[in-house]
Amino acid sequence: MSTLMNGATMLLECLVREGVDCIFGYPGGVTIPFYDALYEHHVRHVLVRHEENAAFAAEGYARSTGKVGVCCATSGPGATNLTTGLVDALMDSIPIVAITGQVNSKLIGSDAFQEADTFGTTRSCTKHNYLVKRLEDLVQIVHEAFYVAASGRPGPVLVDVTKDVLTGQGHYQPVTAIHLPGYKVFTEGHTGQIRRAAQMIQEAERPLLYTGGGIISAGASAELRQLVELTDIPVVSTLMGLGGLASTHPNFISMPGMHGSYAANMAMTESDLLIALGTRFDDRVTGRLAAFAPHAKVIHVDIDPAEVGKIRTPEVPIVGDVKRVLGKLNKLLAENPAAPSEPLAAARRAWWRKVRAWKEEHPLQPSTSDTEIKPQHLMAEIDRVSQGQAIVCSDVGQHQMWAAQLIRFNEPRLWINSGGLGSMGFGVPSAMGAQFARPDKLVFALAGDGGFQMSIPELGTIAANGLPIKIVVMNNGYLGMVRQWQELFYNNRMSGVTLECFPDAEKLAGAYGFKGRTIDKPWELGPALDEAVKEPGPYLLNVKVTPFECVYPMVPAGAGIQEMVLGPPRPVEVPAK
Ligand SMILES: Cc1ncc(C[n+]2csc(CCOP(=O)(O)OP(=O)(O)O)c2C)c(N)n1
Predict the structure, then answer these.
(1) What is the pTM (predicted TM-score) of this model?
(2) Is 163 an active-site residue?
(3) Are 443 and 510 in contact (CB under 8 A)?
C-alpha cells in the first residue's frame, strides 16, 4: 500500500522517476507547497535570479546533454517571465518541461491575486501544455509531459498546476504506459524513399550534405560521419548543427547562410543534389528563396512532417528519425556500392576541386591587429584554448556569428546558442545549465556587452553555486549587430545602439566574490584567456574589441545567398599626382 502524500510530493516523485536531478526555478505564493516538498530532498533546486533565466538554464542543461531540462515558476508574473525561454526552446526544438503554479482551481477566472492565464498564454509558446485541476490527473500528465517533450521533434512542454492540486492528499499510482492517440511519431522513414535517396546520392555529380540541429537532437553524429565516409560528399552545417560533424573533418566546409562562408553558400548554389538532414530551410540559411539552390534536387529527412515541404518541396521526402533513416541509408549504400562511371567519377572530382577552390579563395580567417583586439582574434583565441572540446554558450549578436564561423566544435552539444529566436540574454544562463549538467567540462559563456548586461543578476547564481564558468564579454561599446545594419543599410545613422557605461569587470566580479579583468591590448588576450581557464572558479573577462567591425560575409536581406558581400567596401583610391 503506497503512502498518502500531497500533490507537491507526488509531483516531485514523478520528477525523480523521470531521472530529474536538477530544477532551475524561482518560488512564489502558490508554489510554496512544492518548495516545501523540495526541502531536504535530494533533487537539486537552483535558485536563479529571474524566471526567464530558469528556462534558459533548463535549455542549457538539455542542449548540453540531450536530457529533458526542468524549470519552475510561480503563477502570474513568474509564469509570464518564462515565456521567452519557452519560445526559444520551441524554435530550436529543445526538450524542457516547465512547471508553473496556478491559483486555486475554484479561483480561476476571478482575477485572483497573481492569476494569469498561463495555459492560454503559453499555448503557442510550447509544443504542448496542460492545466492540472484535479489531483488524480497529476501523475499521468507529468509523465506525459516528459514523453511529449523528448519524443519526436523535441520541444518545451508546460504543466500548470493549481494550488489545491499541490496541497491535496492522495496516493502515488505509477504510470506504466503513455497512450496518446492523437500524437504520432514517425521514426522509421519510408523504405522506398530511402532506396530512392541512395540511388540519387550515387548518381549525383555535385551532391552536398546540408545538416542541421536535428543531427544533434537525434544523436545521429556517428551515422552522419559514416555516410560522409561512404560517399565522400562535402558537408555544410547550419548554426544549429555545428559539431554534428567535427569541424576538423576534411569534408566539413562550414556554415551557410546570411553570415555563412563563401564556400558553403557557393556549394549550396551550385549543388545538383541537396541532402537536407534535420534542418528546416530557415530564411537565414536560404536567403531569397527563388535563388536558393536553383540546380538542386532535394532529399529532405526530418522527424516533423510539417517541416517537409514547408519551404522547399523535396523530390524525396523522408519523414523519420534522422538517426534511424541514416542507419538504413548507410546500410543500403554499404551493401550496394555503385562503381561510378568514369564521367561521373570525373564530375565528382571536379566538384571537390571547385569546393576546395572556393574555400581557398575566401577562407574564414581571423583578422588581427598589433594595437587593438579584433573580434575575430578573440574567437581564434577561444578556439585555441577550447581545442574543439569546450562548451561555448553564446549570446546573440555579432559575437555569435564570429564564434560560429571561427570556433571549432569537434563533438555535438558543445555549441549552445539561441538560433531560431535569437534571444539576447541567453548566453550566461544557458552556460549555468550546461555547467550543472557537465561539471567535467570547460564552459564558456560568450556575450556581447549588450546581452551580458541582460544577465548580470545571474552572476549571483554563478557565485552562489561556485560554477567555474568563464564569462567572456566581447565589448565593442555598441549593440553591435544592430549597429552593423544601421551602418550598412541606414546610412550609418546610429540610433539607440550606444552602450555608454559598462561596469568595471574586476569590481563587478569582485562584488560577487570572483575574479574579473578588462583587457584591450592584443598581446594581453592569450595570457588572459589562459588565466581565466586556469582559475578554478568563475571568471569574468571583459575584452574591449575594435568597435566598428562588421561580420562578413553577409547576405543582405532579400538577396540570394550567392550575392554575398565579402568585406567592407574598398576605400576609393586617390590617384597619385
Ligand atoms: C531580447 C532581444 N532584444 C533585442 C534583440 C535584437 N538584437 C539582435 S543582436 C542585437 C545586438 C546585440 O548587441 P551585443 O549584445 O552588444 O552583441 P554584439 O552584436 O555587439 O556582439 C540586438 C539588439 C534580440 N535579439 N533579443
Answers:
(1) 0.97
(2) yes
(3) no
